[in-house]
Amino acid sequence: MIIPFQYNILKLKVNNIFYAEGTQMKNLKRNCSLIEDIINGMMDWVRVVDKENKIVFVNKPMTEALNDCKVGESCYKAIGLTSPCDNCTSRRAVFEGSSFEKFEKIGNKTFSVMSSPLRNEYDEIIASVEVLRDITQLKELQDIVMKQNQKLQDDLMIAKKLQCNLLPKNLQQEKVSFSFVYQPCEDLGGDFLDIFEIDNDHIGIYIADVSGHGIPASMLTVFLRSAIDKKSLSPSKVLHSLYKEFYSSNFDHDVYITVFYSIINLSDHTIRFSNAGHNIHPIIFNKHDNSRIESLIVPGSPISNWFEEPDYTEVQLDLRKNDRLFYCTDGIIELKNDRQEQFGEERLRNILFSDTSEPSHTLNKIISQACKFAGIDDSSTLPDDITIAIIDINE
User: Fold this and answer.
1) Domains of the chain, start order
2) Helix 214-227 vs helix 235-247: angle between axes, to the nearest 10 degrees?
3) How far apart are CA 246 and CA 316, in angstroms?
């Protein structure tokens, strides 16, 4: 015998009164009518399914929408099926006693179906209450967003390949050895570096850090590479020209680039350099002479639109055989552990001075120890862009 749905609701909602007479019965019927009116007034479809997959109650909106959704019918027949659903959440709600959600296609609409157990006065599960909400438009919007997101991811991968193609390739020069690590914290990075031959006797090297991360920062790295003068033999003039180009491009006031630019003269064994606000100064040390340690310090304003006429100076130093030049951005130095301590320049220099093997080996050791310090297992999850480079003077 099917127990009327209204009576079950009353047993749950009205102080566990199971038998009533006179005024009590009238009050119960009035309460029952109110509850049914509330359920029939809902926009969502509501039905109750017993343990035999039979509908014992269905609200008015669902009845009007589905001709076969009637009391006594099989629940699956009401949505156009010939057998119970393989992922029937109502059955799970009845036998497992928890609420479950699934998505169901009914006609040309998509519904979120939430099934919850219905208990009697003895706390026995006697049926499942299903609430079906039309999410067709939401699902269509979700599909559109997912397609757009996939297109964005595809575009980012193309942009990432393009940015990586702008990075320096193997330097065909016997007098120097060069290696670098470039690892953005997002698909696209705001760090950049380059090394290139200006002529037979001069090599240009610069390292840069763009404000921000991601797509906007990566676009500035493209501007940097295209705007920088690779023919001039004066680092200060290169930075001044770059500043004027940036200034005339009407970038936002909070956008800027720090650049350290240097030129190695292979014929007279010197290095000339100038700085545009890059606060991590490159260092020179000799692999066989512990007394040879020097920071390449020179003042200079970032590439920005903060001043109409910036001032850049340049410095020249002599180079020796077995000198090693180290360049980096602040990502590796500012990496923190769980006590909020920075990896710092001292730890970085200790690695550099103790490991004078091939540049690539030394750089990998720096990355490895920095990740270990920060408790990071995968270097691809570093919180900031990491760019480090080593140049060895072989002659």
Assistant:
1) 5-134 (3.30.450.20), 168-393 (3.60.40.10)
2) 130
3) 26
